Amino acid sequence: MKKICLLSVTVILSSLFAVDDSYARRGGGSGGYKSYKGAKAIDGDTFKHKGKSYRLRDYNAPEIGQPGSDKATKDLQKRLDSGNYEYDTVAKDVYGRKVVKERVKE
Fold first, then answer.
1. Which CATH number fits domain 19-104: 2.40.40.20, 3.40.50.150, 2.130.10.10, 2.40.50.90?
2. pLDDT score of 2 more than 80
3. pLDDT tens-digit profile of 91-106?
4. Beta strand pairing call for 40-43 and 46-49
5. For 21-24, which contacts have Cβ atoms below 8 Å and span 24 or more sequence positions?
6. How many other CB atoms are there within 10 angstroms of residue 100's CB atom?
7. What is the pLDDT of residue 106?
8. What integer pLDDT is reported at residue 1 of this predicted model?
9. Mind listing the pLDDT tens digit for each residue in 11-56?
10. Contact at 8 Å (CB) between 74 and 85?
11. Would the CA dihedral through 55, 58, 64, 69 be positive or negative?
């Protein structure tokens, strides 16, 4: 019984945090990197720009209220404000956020 419950929890959590890579393949991507200067960092790996939410791919920052979350949020805000970083949409997550990859502006 414990194995079945653990498996069920694992499946549920996997589906909650799954990323739909088909989004980028079917034309949902932005078609290129762009800066989000003026965006507002929500936490260390999520920001909002013009009413839309974005999640950084390959980042796992502490959640709000966890140790290190304030620093992670401030670091992301500095990167956004600098204009030295660009982002490209690669997918859409189960929460409707666009998942973006980050690179240093060339």
1. 2.40.50.90
2. no
3. 999 999 999 999 998 8
4. antiparallel
5. 21/90, 21/91, 22/91, 23/89, 23/90, 23/91, 23/92, 23/99, 24/89, 24/90, 24/91
6. 22
7. 81
8. 52
9. 343 444 444 444 444 445 546 898 998 999 999 999 999 999 999 9
10. no
11. negative
| Per-residue tokens: 101 | 């990859």
Per-residue HEC secondary structure of the chain comes to CHHHHHHHHHHHHHHHCCEECHHHHHHHCCCCCECCCCCEEEECCEEEECCEEEEECCCCCCCCCCCCHHHHHHHHHHHHHHCCEEEEEEEEECCCCEEEEEEECC
For position 31, what pLDDT does the model report?
61
* Residue 10 CB burial class (10 angstroms; 0-12, 13-18, ≥19): exposed
Please list, in sequence order, all residues whose beta carbon lies within 8 angstroms of the beta carbon of residue 35, skipping any fewer than 6 positions away.
83, 85, 86, 87, 105
Token pair for 35: 């800066």
* Strand pairing report for 98-104 and 52-56: parallel
